[in-house]
Amino acid sequence: MTLTADQQQIIERIGVFFETKGNQPILGRIIGLLMVADDAEATFEDIQKCLFVSKSAVSQALTLLQSQNKVEYITKPGERKRYFRLKIRNWKVDIQDDLRKVFKFNEIIEEIISLRGNKNEEFNSYLKEVSNFMQFMEAELPKLIEKYKKQIE
Hints:
Distance between the termini: 37 Å
Number of strands: 3
Radius of gyration: 21 Å
CATH architecture of the largest domain: Orthogonal Bundle
Shape: elongated
Helix content: 55-70%
Mean pLDDT: 93
Largest sheet: 3 strands, antiparallel
CATH superfamily of the largest domain: Winged helix-like DNA-binding domain superfamily/Winged helix DNA-binding domain
Number of domains: 2
């Protein structure tokens, strides 16, 4: 598998993006590679060679990505190799699940608000604003999903 300079640049940008979110850059780079690869899949060896990383780094990253349900592998008849690909088919469900987790965290924020005293009103105000925004987003999300469904029909 050979990558163009543009593909390599995008892969690196995705790696940096993942790093800014507190993840290992290799996770983003593997996702980026699987996104830009013409076949939308790559073998373990392809990943290692294209990203210039060790076997252990690829192995650990793929294990983590599979446990996060972001990557899966397939096999092909007559071949022993595994082909890794993104589990992007369920992207709508994945996004909704991620947002539900964020909304669930708001329950903790609301509990914190009820426990806090009045010593730092400015901080309390920020917490309330975050909670209000989360409640707003949770109420509006179903409407946005329906609007999107109608738009793509």
